[in-house]
Write a structure and sequence with these properties.
The chain is rod-shaped. It is about 75% helix and about 5% strand. Strand 3 (about 140-145) and strand 4 form a beta hairpin. It has seven helices and four strands. It is mainly alpha-helical.
Length: about 270
């Protein structure tokens, strides 16, 4: 039996230090909800988690882009619904202006309404969405995934000659009214084609939105497996380490008391 070097106490202290460190780590995980509280916990897992988190952020950004593009298309169609109503009324006015029982004054009144509707359509062609023109005919490339790939959203041009010709017609004469009927029919045909394009844009954007939603959910799940703590398992670990710390403390006290037995040999 020796006094200067208490091997039992040293071993007990080493075990207590390990248990205390494990208890502290378990406490950090439970309090933070994260399985990785420092790079040393899981260096490879941390690297993968950072990559997943970064990609998830890009997915959310792409989702916002798609949502904004969808709102853009819906705004376009909302305006074009009203434009369709205006052209339909202009077509009716053109037919009514061909009535042989109508006087020149009557046709002049029809022309006033015809001009007002044409002015409304021309005004719609200048409208914008958050500063971006709705109807200048430009194709917009919408970012649809975290890698920067894009979807070309076909533009709508309300300055198309099919529209401007119809809005500039004169129905104060029967011949002019006959021409206006043909022109408004062409404008409505063009409008139908443009609204179909908008519908195709919205359908494609809906697919991209669903795709991004699924990708985001899967990335979140994968990152959770790496970074999020399993509370049930970690609570068990915490309880275990807490007991080890308490018993280690008690055993260290016992080990430190062993040298006192030397006194018995000297008495």
């Amino acid at each position: 039996m020796v006094i200067n070097t208490n091997i039992s106490a040293l071993n007990a202290a080493a075990q207590l230090m390990q248990s205390s460190s494990a208890l502290s780590q378990s406490l950090q995980r439970l309090s933070s909800g994260s399985q990785i509280t420092s790079p040393a916990d899981d260096p490879a897992g941390l690297a993968v988690s950072m990559q997943l988190t970064s990609e998830l952020g890009r997915v959310h950004a792409a989702s916002n882009n798609v949502a904004d593009a969808t709102s853009f298309s819906q705004t376009q169609d909302g305006y074009l619904q009203q434009v369709n109503t205006a052209f339909s009324r202009m077509s009716e006015l053109a037919v009514e202006a061909q009535d042989v029982t109508k006087t020149t004054n009557d046709r002049a009144l029809y022309q006033q309404e015809f001009n007002a509707l044409g002015a409304y359509i021309n005004n719609v062609s200048t409208q914008s969405f958050n500063g971006v023109s709705l109807f200048d005919g430009q194709t917009l490339n919408v970012t649809t995934d975290p890698n920067g790939d894009t979807f070309a959203m076909a533009g709508i041009n309300l300055s198309n000659t099919s529209y401007t010709t119809a809005t500039g017609d004169d129905i104060t004469t029967i011949s002019g009214a006959q021409k206006a009927v043909l022109d408004t029919e062409k404008a409505i045909d063009q409008l139908a084609s443009d609204r179909a394009n908008i519908g195709a844009n919205e359908e494609s954007l809906s697919y991209y939105s669903n795709q991004l939603s699924a990708l985001g959910n899967n990335l979140s799940a994968a990152n959770s497996m790496i970074a999020d703590v399993d509370v049930a398992t970690e609570s068990t670990t915490y309880a275990k380490q807490n007991i080890l710390v308490q018993t280690g403390t008690a055993m260290l006290a016992q080990a430190n008391s062993l040298p006192q037995s030397v006194l018995k040999l000297l008495s």
